[in-house]
Amino acid sequence: MDFWFSISLLMIKTMSLALLNPFFWLVVFIVLLQYRRIVFMEKKLFGQSINNIWKQTIYSVIFGIMGGIFGSIFLLLLGISLDCIGIAYLWPVAILLLLLNPRFLCFAYAGGIISAVSLLIRFLLPFWPNLGDIALLKGLMDIHLPSLLALIGILHLTESFLIFISGHRGASPIYLKAPSGELLGGYSMQRFWPLPLMGLWGLVVAESSEIFVGGVLMPEWWPLLGSVMNPVGAEKLIYLMVPLVAGLGYSDLALSSYPRDKRIKTAGNLALYSVLLSLLAISAVFIPLMIIPAALLAPLGHEFLIRKGNKEEFSRPPLFNANNSHGLTIIAVIPDSPAEKAGLQGGDWLMEVNNQRIDSEIDFWNILRVNYYRVLFKIKRSEKEIKLPVQIYPWPVNQLGIIFAPGRLANVYVEMKHSSLLKNIRRRFSPGGS
Question: 192: which of 31, 297, 327, 368 fits an S-S bond (Cβ 3.0–4.6 Å)?
Fold first, then answer.
């Protein structure tokens, strides 16, 4: 009991230092800017914002702290030491991949590439011993690959946890032009979390060192992933808890399912990938050859999940499109609006207004302008027909708070395009670029 209390106390102290770190609040500011960009897009598409920037940022900080606790527990249990995972290589490779495509800014890809190169150097070393004299290559060869890949697994497990508990929050309605040319309505799911984390840093010190004061003796089996450092004689291997700051982001589209359902499936798939990667990394400590499938799974498994998710969204029937024979489908309701107060919800199918059939948004707005004070909506929800009185006055008609699925004549929408950062920079600085 004393052991777990002491460990928990050390973790809380370390994570508190992360919260006080200016870099944590810099990440919070970056998160706020991301939500500001989302709200700007909402105003551009619908003329009004659906989400509140400050509310979403506060939610992200709260959930980020929860995610930091979740991730730190697993980092501690596995004993992942940051001094041996090749951080000096990880970030430069990740930034280079960012130049190819923004979605490649992920340790799954950078870590997979570094692991493959490290394994290749180890394979070639018996044939070309001089490779070990090159500092860059020696550094790559000395990386503790099980720890690196386990770290990637834990970070993605933390992301899956955050997606599950908050991935559906703040989903923005979106009009999207599919690759087929069809205009679809759906939801853009974008979440960002600042994470205060507890990391470990291994040191070999003399047994008489004062650094042992206040330490906690760990079980014999720990660290589970082992270490590249081997103390000799009167030396001991110790691990320092260090405060870390990280940021996680999640971006997805929900076109054939609602955000609450989509986040459960996404979180489940990502958790499965994370657990499998972590188990392979742990097994590689005892069976070295297992590092090969672990290194392959990191980037390829991640890419498979993304491609699988996108394919499913565009291959299944969409929730909202422009092909309804009559009526209007509500894709979203503005918070605190007359529509929300009346009980309208996203997914409701508006059939009649004041006993008049609705065939287009033009019909809808024309009826409202004539019958502004007293409005009765007939909707269909889960195969049930419901009549709801809506009190619009004293609000203006255009602030009713309903966003409909795209109509055939919708002229504002988002189109999916694949572009790299390098191409964007080249286009911006080329003659005539903007």
Answer: 31
- CATH 2.30.42.10 residue ranges in the chain? 325-404
What is the model's pTM?
0.88
Q: How many CA atoms lie within 13 A of 43 on its CB side?
A: 9
Three-state DSSP string of the chain? CHHHHHHHHHHHHHHHHHHHCHHHHHHHHHHHHHHHHHHHHHHHHHCCCCCCHHHHHHHHHHHHHHHHHHHHHHHHHHCCEHHHCCHHHHHHHHHHHHHHCHHHCCHHHHHHHHHHHHHHHHHHCCCCHHHHHCHHHHHHHCCCHHHHHHHHHHHHHHHHHHHHHHCCCCCEEEEEECCCCCEEEEEEEEEEEEEEEEEEEEEEEECCCHHHCCCCCCCCCCCCCCCCCCCCCCEEEEEEEEEEEEEEEEEEEECCCCHHHHHHHHHHHHHHHHHHHHHHHHHHHHCHHHHHHHHHHHHHHHHHHHHHHHHHHHHCCCCEECCCCCCEEEEEECCCCHHHHHCCCCCCEEEEECCEECCCHHHHHHHHHHCCCCEEEEEEECCEEEEEEECCCCCCHHHCCEEECCCCCCCCCEECCCCCHHHHHHHHHCCCCC
Are the beta carbons of 103 and 419 closer than 8 angstroms? Answer: no
Distance CA 324, CA 330 (A): 12
pLDDT of amino acid 111: 95
* CATH number of the 325-404 domain: 2.30.42.10
| pLDDT score of 283 | 96
What pLDDT shows up at residue 214?
A: 64
The pLDDT, as a whole number, for residue 288 is 94
pLDDT of residue 83: 86
192 touches 168 (CB < 8 A): no
Handedness of CA 332, 337, 343, 349 (dihedral sign): negative
The total number of residues shown for the chain amounts to: 434
What pLDDT is stored for residue 23 in this prediction?
93
Residue 262: predicted pLDDT: 94
Do residues 320 and 185 lie in contact, with contact meaning Cβ atoms separated by under 8 Å? yes
Look up tokens 């291959």; give the residue.
Answer: 315
